[in-house]
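Supplementary Note 3. Input sequence used for the single-chain structure prediction.
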Amino acid sequence: MTTVIVYNKPASVQCNATYRTLENKVIAYETGDLSQDPEALEQIRAMGYMQAPVVIADEDH
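The predicted structure, written as discrete structure tokens, is reproduced below.
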């Protein structure tokens, strides 16, 4: 089974829209708060992302 993680920031309209889309498609997901997890933030930046949300499904993003 695919693990889906949505890395987010608090009170983000884009993040909330991503959650709704995943829920409408009945896709289970976990979240990671980039404002609270500096290691995750560095990982996301290392992948070249500068904005949230970032959705990672197994090895795809």
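The chain has a mean pLDDT of 95. Strands lie at 4-8, 30-33, 54-57.
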